[in-house]
Automatic annotation (TrEMBL), chain A:
It comes from the Eukaryota. GO terms for biological process: endoplasmic reticulum to Golgi vesicle-mediated transport. It is found in: Golgi apparatus membrane; Membrane. GO terms for cellular component: Golgi membrane; trans-Golgi network. Residues 23-43 are annotated as: Disordered. Keywords: Membrane, Transmembrane, Transmembrane helix. The chain crosses the membrane at residues 80-99, 111-132, 144-163, 169-193, 205-224. This is Protein YIPF. The keyword Signal does not apply. Pfam families: Yip1. Belongs to the YIP1 family. The keyword Signal does not apply. It comes from Oreochromis aureus.
Automatic annotation (TrEMBL), chain B:
Residues 97-270 form the Yip1 domain. The chain crosses the membrane at residues 117-138, 158-180, 192-210, 222-244, 256-278. The gene is YIPF2. One of its GO terms (molecular function) is small GTPase binding. This is Protein YIPF. It comes from the Eukaryota. The keyword Membrane applies. Pfam families: Yip1 (PF04893).
Length: 226, 305
């Protein structure tokens, strides 16, 4: 009873209010636009440039660490970015230059060929997994495939350093072991992330193109000759 | 089973009866995939009517020669229908292409109106890389004893292999399918193969060349020619067994000519790959410029010593 009385009280006075026509009604209806908007915490326009760059760098570095220790976590998948794959692809393509490619067309892959193989290969593998009924999104898959090239890029660096010493049979055996280990690592890391998004009776159909992709890149790394 | 006219007539009558009995009752509109209506008596009849419709649709799509791809060619689902295979199915088809048996038509027995594009595409890609890589390895093995030889990755061969193999795997089926469809149109025959099935059988028939190209690394010419012969017999018989039942009703000349053309094109691909990518010690024209310049350097070095 009292509650209903109280509830009706704020409205009780309104019936008595009347605005006479000779009093001008004026006011300001504009909503102040300022830092009190609801997406205040996502506004990054005012932060120093260093913060912006460091945030992206930290995200990229975080993903590199995830490739090094491939746990079945979804951090790589959730926040995809293509900076890492671009960086790795350019590094790999640059390191594959300066070999026999300079002299005639008998040599190793040109810069454009490496780019085409990495990016078109990733796109085709992503399309393949989506056509087979996978649930992963297009850019997430590109992100995973690109980041998992990292072991092979590391192997390329090792190979070039080792080749500075000599190019005998023992050095070749060392290179072979390093490249094979990194190829296995790449394939294992990417299937750890990609295979979960496939129906179980088609997993092998999705894993095989990934295997072929990293095999071709490993072949390019291994056959680099100064 | 009652005739369709009867069923439809009954459905309307019952609905009209129900409506007249209770004009204020809410009515459910029946669509094709709906569950039976709330009135129990009409449930069975309505179900039969609907299922007959669906059966009719399915039958007509089978007559059209295979699974009807859903959607237009601009939708994703259209292309998804070409990848509707499981691992075991793909492995089965690969096995069927490697071991052809005289009674089994590859298309009728293995594809069973579910042609896929997964097999042909990835077999072609694998073949491109296996031919290029094995060719490179075989050149290396042949020239190992040659001190003037400097190893080259020869990456441009991948591009050439890709162009040749993909053109073969797509243009020849287009030509063959077009020719067969035209002959069928002229001769009023039935039972031809769809374009997708032709591409599919050609793609799977190329699988035998993958292990063959890997074995071609061994640098003995007689072994390579033997391997070519075996691969061509197996692969060619898959194609002949598939296409002979379609052409044999035609005139004798056309039938034999078609089959011979198929086999000859297949042979040309195999022999061409072998001759270009896998060169023996006697014929290495691409390595000549490098070896001659290096030879000059070494002779100069010898002379100064």
């Amino acid at each position: 009873m009292a509650a209903s009385e109280e509830a009706s009280r704020p409205f009780a006075g309104l019936s008595d209010v009347s605005i006479s026509e000779d009093i001008p009604v004026e006011g300001d209806i504009s909503v102040p636009v300022g830092p009190s908007r609801r997406d205040d915490e996502f506004s990054t326009l005012d932060e120093p440039v260093k913060d912006t760059i460091m945030r992206d760098l930290r995200a990229v570095g975080n993903k590199f660490i995830h490739v090094l220790y491939p746990k079945r976590s979804s951090a790589l998948l959730r926040d995809w970015d293509l900076w890492g794959p671009l960086l790795l692809c350019v590094t790999l393509a640059l390191l594959l230059q300066g070999g026999a490619a300079d002299h005639e067309d008998q040599g190793g892959p040109q810069f454009a060929e490496v780019f085409v193989i990495v990016w078109f290969g990733s796109i085709i593998i992503t399309l393949n997994s989506k056509l087979l009924g996978g649930t992963i999104s297009f850019f997430q898959s590109l992100c995973v495939l690109g980041y998992c090239i990292m072991p092979l890029t590391v192997a390329m660096v090792v190979c070039r350093i080792v080749l500075l010493v000599s190019s005998g049979v023992i050095i070749f055996a060392v290179r072979l072991v390093v490249v094979m280990a990194s190829f296995g690592w790449s394939t294992f890391a990417s299937t750890a992330f990609l295979a979960d998004s496939q129906p179980p009776n088609r997993k092998a159909l999705v894993v095989y193109p990934v295997f072929l992709f990293y095999f071709v890149i490993a072949w390019m790394v291994l056959t680099y000759s100064p | 089973m009652a005739s369709p006219n009867n069923l439809q007539f009954q459905e309307f009558e019952e609905a009209a009866e129900l409506l007249s009995a209770d004009p204020g009752a809410s009515t459910l509109s029946m669509s094709g995939s709906n569950t039976p209506s709330t009135t129990a008596s009409a449930g069975e009849d309505v179900k039969l009517d609907l299922s007959e419709d669906e059966e009719g649709q399915q039958e007509s799509s089978e007559l059209l020669g295979g699974q009807k791809p859903s959607g237009g060619f601009w939708t994703f689902e259209y292309y998804q229908s070409f990848f509707n295979v499981d691992t075991m199915q793909v492995l089965d088809r690969v096995k069927g292409s490697v071991m052809p048996q005289p009674g089994r038509n590859f298309i009728k027995y293995y594809l069973r109106s579910n042609p896929d594009l997964y097999g042909p595409f990835w077999i072609c890609v694998t073949l491109v890389f296996s031919v290029a890589i094995s060719g490179n390895l075989s050149t290396f093995l042949v020239e190992r004893g040659n001190p003037a030889f400097h190893y080259r990755p020869q990456f441009h061969r991948v591009t050439i292999a890709a162009v040749v193999i993909f053109m073969y795997a797509w243009l020849v089926p287009i030509g063959l399918w077009g020719f067969l469809t035209w002959r069928q149109g002229a001769e009023r025959q039935i039972g031809g193969y769809s374009f997708l099935e032709t591409v599919c059988v050609y793609g799977y028939s190329l699988f035998i060349y993958i292990p063959t190209s890997v074995l071609w690394i061994i640098p003995y010419d007689w072994l390579r020619w033997t391997l070519i012969l075996i691969a061509m017999v197996i692969s060619g018989s898959v194609l002949v067994l598939t296409f002979w039942p379609v052409v044999r009703d035609d005139t004798k000349v056309t039938a034999v000519a078609t089959v011979v053309t198929i086999v000859v094109l297949h042979t040309l691909l195999a022999v061409g790959c072998k001759l270009y990518f896998f060169q023996t010690a006697a014929s290495t024209p691409t390595a000549l410029p490098t070896s001659s310049t290096l030879h000059n350097h070494t002779t100069l070095a010898v002379k100064t010593n």
